Amino acid sequence: MFRSALSLAIVVLPVFAQNTLHSTPDVVRGRFVSINQKVLDMARDFPEDKYDFRLTPETRSFRELIVHIAGGNIYAAKAGGGENVAWDEKVEPDPKEYKTKAAVVAMFEKTASDANSVLKNLPDSSFTKTVDPWVDVMEHSAEHYGLLVAYYRANGIVPPASRPKK
After folding, report:
1. What CATH fold (topology level) applies to the domain 23-156?
2. Spatial CA neighbour of 109 closest among 70, 77, 140
């Protein structure tokens, strides 16, 4: 009995021990695209009449927050493409320029597409040097994604990612 179990373990365990982890470039690309898609889904889904909703008077409105997150994409596209750029108000779009839901969504789509394009075209070998600016921007976007969830919940709306899948 022991020999049978040992023999089975010797045959089966190497199958489970195979590396199922994804490469760093694949993880960075996948997560970056994923967080942008979640934010874009929210930008498209949130009711336009609530785009200027704020959790508190001193916080950004939903609209301003989406525009702010887009600033990270602009920075990532520039820095990731080799431009020497600081992540500051010069890179970030002015929320006052995006007055409607359609304008905000279109702008976010463009910034995400631009950043995703730069990221997709980077050679895998570039990730052996650094994962910046991608991980910095992902962290920033994910933090604000959590805040967007609070905007949804405060308005009695279930966020898209929390809805039952059909």
Report:
1. Four Helix Bundle (Hemerythrin (Met), subunit A) (1.20.120)
2. 70
